[in-house]
Known about the structure:
Layout: H1 7-24, H2 28-37, H3 44-55, H4 74-85, H5 90-93, H6 100-110, H7 113-124, E1 129-133, E2 150-154, E3 157-168, E4 175-183, E5 194-200, E6 206-211, E7 224-235, H8 246-282, E8 284-285, E9 288-289, H9 294-323, H10 330-354, H11 366-375, H12 383-396
Parallel strand pairs: 1-4
Antiparallel strand pairs: 2-3, 3-7, 4-5, 6-7, 8-9
The structure holds flavin-adenine dinucleotide (FAD).
Amino acid sequence: MDFEYSARTRALRERLDAFMAEHVYPAERRYFEEVAADRWGPPPILEELKQRAKAAQLWNLFLPDSDHGAGLTNVEYAPLCEVMGRVHFSSQIFNCSAPDTGNIETLIRYGSKSQNARWLPKLLDGETRSAFAMTEPEVASSDATNIRSTIVRDGDDYVVNGHKWWISGVGDRNCELIIFLGVSNAEAPKHNRHSMILIPRNAPGVEVIRPLTVFGYDDAPHGHMEMVFDNVRVPAENMLLGEGRGFEIAQGRLGPGRIHHCMRLIGLAERCLELMCRRVKSRIAFGRPIGEQSVTLERIAEARILIDQARLLIMKAAWMMDTVGNKVARTEIAMIKVAAPNMACKVIDWAIQAHGAAGLSEDFILANYYAHARKLRFADGPDEVHRNQIGRLELAKYEAA
Length: 401
Ligand SMILES: Cc1cc2nc3c(=O)[nH]c(=O)nc-3n(C[C@H](O)[C@H](O)[C@H](O)COP(=O)(O)OP(=O)(O)OC[C@H]3O[C@@H](n4cnc5c(N)ncnc54)[C@H](O)[C@@H]3O)c2cc1C
């Protein structure tokens, strides 16, 4: 990699690489075996590795501009996500995984003193996990103004009702907090109707209906759950920031999280390309290694081009977030949110093809990683919505003309 990283990033990356080599790659098989034995864990190996990461001070590396994190800029943190992304559960080892990172950032930015005192210490310590509940089966949720769950004031409480799905992280037994989006002021202007409220996972009326699957993977112990919130009563002080401010919070929440996902995808794609290269060098078909067939060479070259392009675009977006802020960087954030998952899907698909039928099996990580990359074309909004935004911002440049 020829990108000029800061001395601090280089030092952290070296330590992270060494930690992955010593502890994480050798534990991959054990992780999946433990998840198979106890679906909604968390697996003991994960807890063991978390303690090691904490001791090695590779902990809470996200959180730019905060006393709680390592104080890294987005440009400094992004390359570390790439290393973590090589093993898709590893970000949790360093307490840097979604949706906790986005939720922690939300609390730090918008939570009250008492909300933060209750929820933050355990989340920052990796003792508990959290979820973000927006999407609903009955409405097109890529347009968040459609969300129709309700949050109704009743004396000193709010009463929450709704049907949600694809709520990631609720499966984990350590999940204790759900940040919930719903309508609190139906008569208000479109972007002031919704609020976010904090709901304890164990509040009466919070029910999981079923885990959903992505191409058959339930992503245990994390999970993506269909849920019902049936007259869930929480104290009024659980309202985040204030009634009607849900969209304001959502805007602030998503930028950094998207960058983290995208950079992890770079690591994931790099690992799959590496597997592909190793495989095609050793398999012989029609008299020569598969790697020497021109179509394979072409795919390897194209994968290298796509990965490096995406990495540079992410670093540009991260640099803009650091220098001009998330709002001005919104085109770059949207561009990378489209580019990275599409790149990763393409590269992993080629890697699967190069492995023959084995690539589809669970003997290799490729099928699982393909499912992971594919879902990121929906999570945090589908490609089309981001493309629309990019297109509109491009056209806006010509408004005067
Ligand atoms: C694995 C996974 C995990 C997830 N985790 C969470 C979570 O933790 N919390 C949560 O709240 N949600 C989560 N989601 C849900 C995700 O955010 C939504 O799926 C996404 O916002 C799209 O909403 P929808 O599924 O309702 O699609 P719809 O809104 O019904 O859209 C369907 C399709 O319509 C097209 N479309 C939509 N808008 C436009 C447009 N403007 N122009 C052109 N075409 C358009 C797109 O192709 C889109 O895919 C997760 C999803 C997945 C797959």
